[in-house]
Amino acid sequence: AAKVAGVTVRRWDQALDERSTAFARLGAELRTALDSGQFHMVYQPIVEMPSGRVHAVEALVRWQHPVRGMVSPAEFIPVAEQNGLIVELGAWVLRTACLRLATWRAELGTDAPARVSVNVSAKQLARPGFAAFVASVLAATGLPASCLAVEVTETAVFEGGPAVTALHELKALGVRIALDDFGTGHSSLGLLQTVPVDTIKVDKSFVDDVTAAGRQAVIAETLIRLTDGLGLVAVAEGVETAEQAAALTRLGYRYLQGYLYGRPVADPDFARVPAAA
Ligand code: C2E
Ligand code: CA
Ligand code: CA
Ligand code: CA
């Protein structure tokens, strides 16, 4: 670093080096984290309107780092994808989430959510044998295939190839397929023709201002028409206020997810009826 007119000027490549060093360090720590059980899963309700019943839960991974504290998946998932550890981490996530729902079903019977929705990264999906791995997890945990959904991003399937093959194999098993963050990636309506999608998750960015008579509301309305017309299910993500819930319900959304109904926690209370819209 050099001092220019009293200001410390760092060469851009030095800043880049520091960033990639931090990235590499995080990557190495992920290995330790996996081996020493620093990950856990949390579950966020997806409620069905107008009953307010918890229809499904989305499984989200958490990393409790011994020194850094809670590290966001938005920070470490890209690192795990880059260094390949996502395959092992993703396998752990899938096993843990399936086992969790199998246990809830045994304990709670019909009060258990109907489905657990698990995020799957592009790398995991495109690896040969992914569908067979999922089948082995279902067999080992005793969870029916219809109780599992995988959430994949448009970007992951946009490339086509092995990821799309895997989705067809998963579909054949009876696993549901959800397109995550719909409308924010390489959106192509053509995807809905070639990929066996059941559910579209409408991104929070279309929900935030859905109560105002602006573009977001128009997009939210168009997306529910589209999914209804195609016989698909739409889930609105990131619902934080009763006003948003009311606006979405008025547009015809039946499945809502967001802090209004519950934050992701290790052990959600399914008996509690969430605030109705
Ligand atoms: P995502 O799949 O879009 O998950 C939704 C994110 O929005 C979660 O963040 C959730 O906690 C947050 N969220 C839910 N409701 C609200 C709300 O009302 N308001 C706001 N502001 N946020 C809300 P989280 O858990 O930090 O996860 C971030 C991302 O990391 C996820 O986005 C997903 O892409 C990735 N991720 C998380 N867990 C996993 C996993 O097990 N495997 C993979 N491959 N990716 C994961
Ligand atoms: Ca998701
Ligand atoms: Ca999402
Ligand atoms: Ca997201």
UniProtKB/TrEMBL annotation:
Residues 23-277 form the EAL domain. This is Bifunctional diguanylate cyclase/phosphodiesterase. The keyword Membrane applies. It comes from the Bacteria. The keyword Membrane applies. Keywords: Membrane, Transmembrane, Transmembrane helix.
